Amino acid sequence: MAGEYVGVFILLGAAFLTDLRSMKIPNALTISGVLAGLLWHLLDEGWGGALFALRGAAIGFVLMLVLYCFGAIGGGDVKLFAGIGAWTGAQMTLHIIVYSILCAGLIGVIILILRREVFARIRGILRNFLGAVLLKSWAPVRSGLKNQLQFPFMLAVLPAAIQAVIYLS
């Protein structure tokens, strides 16, 4: 399994650098990551390995697509997790997703504390939620989503992947 980890961390390292520089992960990187993971498993384990990689890519893509639909992450992150899945398979990808979300939450809280915005954000969330209940409409919640805290998701993904590999290997 060492080869898979080398491959996924090369992919993550490149994505980390591009995401920090431009808040974007290019398609050339994500698609080549998916294809490289698929090819690695096909050559190493045959059709069973290819199925392992395809399952992982599908899990990573579909689950992150849900977060993309809510505006929580960008499209590059969705495709990147397909690449992570192609290299590491469905189980490890699920762990990396969970750890990434937890790390992102922690980073978000730290940023809000440093900016002294915690209570203002909580008030805004409560106001939007109360507006949705009173108006029986999701419009206040949708308007609140436009004011999201943004930072490169790779700040959470890379440490999460390291944690997942350490804990699960």
From TrEMBL:
Q: Which residues cross the membrane?
A: 25-43, 50-73, 93-114
* Taxon lineage: Bacteria, Bacillati, Bacillota, Bacilli, Bacillales
Q: Which GO terms describe its cellular component?
A: plasma membrane
Q: Which InterPro entries match?
A: Prepilin_IV_endopep_pep (IPR000045), Prepilin_peptidase/N-MTase (IPR050882)
Note the Gene3D superfamilies from the entry. Answer: 1.20.120.1220
Its Gene Ontology molecular function terms? aspartic-type endopeptidase activity
The source's domain of life comes to Bacteria
Family under the similarity heading? Belongs to the peptidase A24 family.
Q: Where is the Prepilin type IV endopeptidase peptidase domain?
A: 8-109
Q: Which UniProt keywords apply?
A: Membrane, Transmembrane, Transmembrane helix
GO BP terms: namely: signal peptide processing
Q: What is this protein called?
A: Prepilin peptidase
